[in-house]
Design a protein that fits this description.
By secondary structure, the chain is of the alpha/beta class. It has one domain (11-76, 84-255): Aldolase class I (TIM Barrel, Alpha-Beta Barrel). It contains 11 helices and 8 strands. Strands 1-2-3-4-5-6-7-8 form an 8-stranded parallel barrel, surrounded by 7 helices. Strand 7 (212-216), helix 10 and strand 8 (235-238) form a beta-alpha-beta unit. Helix 5 (114-127) packs across helix 7. The chain starts with 10 loop residues before the first strand and ends in a 6-residue tail after the last helix. The structure holds 2-phosphoglycolic acid (PGA).
Length: 258
């Protein structure tokens, strides 16, 4: 696929948001089985980010497979008096390999600034987790022609200096495309991803050139192939369509050769 840069292995990550119970591990089992049976092997990394109470159970199910388990948020500190919060170290201890930080729902529901997101991404690095750092413009910002400026500012402020291609993934998720069935045009996605790539190279050099940039926002089985083929799109962050193994696998299979 055109968007699959030769030296960057793509990542398809499922963000389950506040959905799922222990029995939902059956979906992880189904993804695991399908990936192990795929011949040739699908050349993409696969990740599932369930709610925190399911991380341990899902990690057990995913063990020995190519599925990595991730958290959806973490506190910047290791431990302490922060009722209801979970640290990056706790996610790691429960079996997670990564954590999403700065999702637009965290930014809007919990008023998280890019400075807070930066601290959370640093915490992920400290704990040995990959930080999946989300950025993206609102509808109003896009209509005002501010997309590149907003995304660039969020990127700059949200990524800690400790970011490398191995410990950081950027997810570009236009807020207006999340859960709406709306997606930007191919040209618009290409423009934003190219701008993010240029910023990453400017700041991090070779590490920035190799960092994965995911597209997120209404990725579905029927649009995945087109979206994932766009230059500088190194995978997807999938919400609604990641809850059912069949839909999620259909998106992962966009990377199947032939
Ligand atoms: P969606 O969500 O695929 O349901 O639009 C994407 C996300 O919020 O990560």
């Amino acid at each position: 696929m055109a968007g699959q840069a030769k030296n960057i292995r793509p990542l398809v990550a499922g963000n389950w948001k506040m959905n799922g119970v222990k029995a939902s591990a059956a979906e992880v089992e189904a993804v695991k089985r399908a990936l192990s049976e795929a011949k040739p092997a699908i050349p993409a990394d696969v990740m599932i980010a369930p709610p925190a109470p399911l991380i341990s159970a899902f990690s057990t199910v995913a063990a020995g497979s190519d599925i990595a388990i991730a958290g959806q948020d973490c506190h910047p500190k290791v431990s302490g008096a922060h009722t209801g919060d979970v640290s990056a170290e706790m996610l790691k201890d429960a079996g997670a390999e990564a954590v999403i930080v700065g999702h637009s729902e965290r930014r809007s529901d919990h008023g998280e600034s890019s400075a807070v997101v930066n601290a959370k991404a640093s915490a992920a690095h400290r704990a040995g987790l990959t930080a999946i750092v989300c950025i993206g413009e609102t509808r109003g910002e896009r209509d005002a022609g501010l997309t590149i400026k907003v995304a660039g500012r969020q990127l700059k402020d949200s990524l800690p200096q400790s970011s490398t291609a191995a410990n950081t993934v950027v997810a570009y998720e236009p807020v207006w495309a999340i859960g709406t069935g709306l997606v930007p045009s191919t040209a618009d996605v290409a423009e934003v991803h190219a701008a993010i790539r240029a910023d990453l190279i400017n700041r991090f050099g070779d590490e920035g050139a190799a960092m994965r940039i995911l597209y997120g926002g209404s990725v579905k089985p029927d649009n995945a192939r087109e979206l994932l083929a766009i230059a500088n799109v190194n995978g997807a962050l999938v919400g609604g369509a990641s809850l059912k193994a069949s839909d999620f696998l259909a998106i992962v299979r966009a990377y199947q050769r032939g």
